[in-house]
Amino acid sequence: MNRQGAHLGGHPILREAFTPKLISALREGYGLARLRADALSGLTVAIVALPLSMAIAIASGATPAAGLFTAIIGGFLVSALSGSRHQIGGPAGAFIVLVAATIDQHGFDGLLLATMLAGAMLIAVGLLRLGTYIKYIPHPVLVGFTTGIAIIIFASQIRDLLGLTLPGKEPAALIPKLQALTAALGTLNPAALGLSALTIATILAVRRWRPNWPGLLIAVGLAAAATFLLNLPVETIGSRFGGIPRALPAPHLPAFSLDKLVEVLPAALSIAVLGGIESLLSAVVADGMSGRRHRSNMELVAQGVANIGSPLFGGLCVTGTIARTATNIRAGGVTPVAGMLHAAFVLLFMLVAAPLASYIPLAALAGVLAVVAWNMAEKAAFAAILRHSRADSLVLLSTFLLVIFEDLMVGIGIGVVLGSLIFMHRMANIVTVEAGMDAGLVDYDEEGHDEPQANGNGKRDGEIFHYKITGPLFFGASSHVATVLDRVGPFPERIVLDLSGVPFADSSAAVSLKAMIDKALRHGSAVEIRGAGRQVRAVLGHEGIDERIVSFREIAQKPGKGVIWG
């Protein structure tokens, strides 16, 4: 094992694949100009992350301080170890539902333990170089998932947007939640409604007329100032949480036991899958904006380390965040130092301005998340899929509805399975089999209407029969191919199988071909295989179709001519 590890570690390509982009950037040289650009970008991202981190934490059922700890510790570790130059880590809206459910079921310590376990899983997935496969999740699944999450996030903010008072705990499921909120409409707080409307209007106005200004921070600051100056009767961070601390807590391990570890394992798996998907999507977006290429497996290792480090300080799940990463690129960040400085600036804000955070109204943070939810919902992509593809619409709606009414992981799992089945069906339909008595092959349908006919002596009118197969031969297409090949009636002297149009074959297809060859050999025909590529030839060889063909001759009922490879 040590020998293998040394070998892998010494391989230049592998070594580069697991090198953080920070090291690559520093190798290029790091001067004052780059530091200035990264510092400005880091400050810009920190201004965006400050209110957003608190809002996400509150919506997740945690304290605003937990969101800030996540941005500081998790954000620093992600950028320091990331496989992307521009990735910004922190708490993400996509985790709100999952984190809230985990806290509800296992308590806050259970969430910390599940997050650390998820971090270990992400490190293992990255080191095993499995990060590449996450990108194969179908587009309709991602659209359905993100749109479903957006609706759940918005529904979770209605209470604070309207300042409603509920007689008991707010239900977690969507329909009971909406029923409880509707019943509580009589408790609507006009001041809270006005603050949330002011927050949303300010964010939209700044985005339209001054897009380079920090709209989220301006909106939250205005709402906090109005609450303080007018002494508005609304809930604030101070009234609900007692404010936020002015220092990081000492690192500590959550309560741990084997039974607790088993209990939180499903939640940990969900956090790992969702974190891996979200972070790699963010890295892909960053690649498209910057023209760079990320290292997916190193990215997963970085996310894993961050998800172990963040809970040690009382932080939440960490992932790459698309909006903050895009802000980093637009603000001119050039290396991972920008993300590390963003974490340092958030820490500075917490140390200096913690008392002021007590005046931030929860209605304002709910307004921030309402805008986040609107931006998350992929409205144009959702409508385009519904218009253009019935099969993709099935995948989209299944994922969307299951995410909303059942569970995040169930929605993703069912969506991926449906998407895979539809893809295999489409691939199977592109496989064609042409047949004819000479090199100019003639198509015939599954009823065999144009199939060459036998003469009165039970022999075909010709000595050589050709089959040309085109397309990937895999288990989804093997039954169709087997049906066509099995229609050989009276056997000719030679059967030619042209596989030059087959880029790939699996064992199911090889078994079908073997059955056809068996039958031909038993009836005294020679079989010639032409144009098979190396991969196809290897798969056929595993099923016993090779130059020796001894087994076929031994089981033949009549002397056969064997298999000839062209």
Automatic annotation (TrEMBL):
It is a multi-pass membrane protein. It comes from the Bacteria. The keyword Ion transport does not apply. Keywords: Membrane, Transmembrane, Transmembrane helix. SUPFAM superfamilies: SpoIIaa-like (SSF52091). The chain crosses the membrane at residues 39-59, 65-81, 88-104, 110-128, 140-158, 178-206, 213-232, 264-288, 343-374, 394-424. Residues 467-549 form the STAS domain. Gene3D superfamilies: STAS domain. Its main location: membrane. It is found in: Membrane. It comes from Bosea vestrisii. The keyword Transmembrane helix applies. This is SulP family inorganic anion transporter.
